[in-house]
Design goal:
This protein is an all-beta fold. The chain is built from no helices and ten strands. The protein has strands spanning about 5, 10, 20-25, 35-40, 45-50, 55-60, 65-70, 75-80, 90-95, 110. The strands form two sheets. It has a six-stranded mixed sheet, with no helix packed on it. The protein starts with a strand and ends with a strand. The model has no long low-confidence stretch (mean pLDDT about 95).
């Protein structure tokens, strides 16, 4: 069973940046399309970015140009660089595959506030 551990969140001011990391256990990480999801208070979890095994990326319109997803298959890790943060980006961020059939990790909280 693959386990996912997210980290890197925090409290940042509007316009700030963070780099999130997700470490995955398991030797078949490289074949998965990995994704970052987020869940804001009172809202459903949404897909914000994904990257396939070949490195092709795709982003939700709300984060295009501000978020960058990447992966390091040697480290079984997927990253999310988030720039130009706004209060609307406040959420718990999770990683999973597409579709999200793996067990969810604990997520990492991103709070954007002045």
């Amino acid at each position: 069973q693959v386990q996912l551990v997210e980290s890197g969140g925090g409290l940042v001011q509007p316009g700030g940046s963070l780099r999130l990391s997700c470490a995955a256990s398991g030797s078949i990480f490289s074949i998965y399309t990995m994704a970052w999801y987020r869940q804001a208070p009172g809202k459903q979890r949404e897909l914000v970015a994904h990257i396939n095994s070949g490195g092709r990326t795709n982003y939700a319109d709300s984060v295009k140009g501000r978020f960058t997803i990447s992966r390091d298959n040697a480290k079984n890790t997927v990253y999310l660089q988030i720039n130009s943060l706004t209060p609307e980006d406040t959420a718990v961020y999770y990683c999973n595959i597409v579709p999200p059939i793996l067990g969810w990790g604990q997520g990492t909280q991103v709070t954007v506030s002045s």
